[in-house]
Amino acid sequence: MTLKELSNEVAAGFHKKYGRAPRWVVAAPGRVNVIGEHTDYNDGFVLPMAIEHYAVMAADLSRSSGLISVHDGAADETAQIEIAKGVVRGNPKWSNYIRGVIAGFQGRGVKVPALDVFLRSTVPLGGGLSSSAALEVSTATLLEAATGEVMDPVEKALLCQKAEHEFAGVPCGIMDQFISVMGRPNQLLLLDCRSRKTRLVPMDDPAVAILIINSNVRHELGTGEYAKRRAQCEAAAKILGVKSLRDATADGLENAKNGMDDTIFRRARHVIGEIERTLHAAEGFRASNWVTVGQLMYASHASLRDDYEVSCPELDAIVEIGDAIGVKGGVFGCRMTGGGFGGCAVALVKTDAVREIIKTIAEEYKKKTGVEASLFTSRPAAGASVLRE
Ligand code: GLA
User: Fold this and answer.
1) Would the CB of 343 count as within 6 Å of ligand 1?
2) What per-residue confidence (pLDDT) applies to 65?
């Protein structure tokens, strides 16, 4: 479904639910991270792109004062958010991403009006494609349109990240909200998570495509382990005497090895190596050096699996299948993407082999794990936008 079709569908959903046409329609995309995993909260580099899957909201001012009603078309469930006294956490659970953003606007002194909202998201939930960031950024984009308070894009991403920290309890880095705000068609975004400066990296060669493979499994330990990894990285930086692992070097780490717990050592080795790989991969994309990019993706996966320990058997199986297909069969590289413990893998593939690759991975993955994967390609998409006002 194109974004236009999706937005028409959401506008129609609004009409059916509330009996009038919406005044605003906004959209914010999910993302896939091509490389640079678990580097954002270490002040490192990431290389994500926005995908052609979106959280779309259609809305109008509401007659009922003091309330934002958000109806989720897919779950057929409505969140009633009281805004008069300052927004707090509440139910349903998914509404907390929205609540956090409203609270962020209120915290900046913005007067948020009562709204009727119809929501639909095509970003797979819990799939490691930042369905939550899409929801946050979509909410922020709607509130910008409804209040006229248009924010600086960096501040907007930071406000959404804060919502995730404080209302969803996930101590995430800045990558997901950033790319959902700033994605560009046919471009990857090389983001320096320290300076928050971005550089566009073209991904417009029709001969290659980004294939996303959803393992359709999610192992519950995800959130707790994420916070643990963050703490381990901070511990490593402290031992190394640097502000963050961005400032550490492979040699420095090797020299400090004896005074370090092995787990902490391996966590730091992943981050230091991954920051390097991300910069090399950006160069590889610029030079259309697909084989090099692919090798960096495999190396990233191995490091996430062995040193960072955030992969799982299902993601490993997908990467092994990709590797077995090989460059001859059209797969340059493949790796887990996002926080880990399930969710998606990402592969760089030859466009003219996509059909065959999808068929092989789906079959082999089912054989190995008993689970059906979902596979789709996406071109890099535009970040959040107001589609109707
Ligand atoms: C999650 C977080 C991001 C990032 C990735 C790992 O998606 O939300 O900030 O840390 O994990 O790279």
Assistant:
1) no
2) 85
